[in-house]
Specification:
Helices cover about 40% and strands about 15% of the residues. By secondary structure, the protein is of the alpha/beta class. It has a five-stranded parallel β-sheet, sandwiched between helices. α1 links the parallel β1 and β2. The two termini are about 20 Å apart.
Length: about 180
Amino acid sequence: MTNVPRMMTLIAISGSLRRDSANTMLLRAAVALAPAGVRIVLYEGVDQLPFFNPDIETAPPPVVRELRGLLSAADGVIVASPEYAHGVPGAFKNALDWLVGCAELGSKPVALMNTSARAVLAHAALAEILTTMGWKVIAAASPVIAVANRGFDAAHIAADPALAGPLRAAIEALVLATRAEVTP
């Protein structure tokens, strides 16, 4: 009997609610560029989450349980988020607030991608938030891939060697870090 390697699953989450945002396009390109044995799933329900309420944190609505379950089952996470007013977009911060108290999500390896070299404050804030949550931000998997305000779709990003190369390298770095997490 051959030992078939298990498919690795990475969950990609955009901090932008815009349908055609650069962050979402970068993550869609990541889905297309996933290496063999790796499945990247784009979570698109940030706009469906209710406002965080600590009173119902232990018995949250189904949409929150679904997000927690999806992330709990994932091997790693890819995050790409814009910067609004030097900070993390409110809807995305709300999503993260629903995840803070989930002990089963601790030590989750995460790639924190940035689509604009100017968006350093939100990027730093996100790194701090994710680290506080117990997630491990993998520096080698957290590049700036400057696609913001350029109007590129996912197909263009995936086909452009100057953009796809760093994106592939980031995915590979996350895969390596994730494998290191699960290897005894």
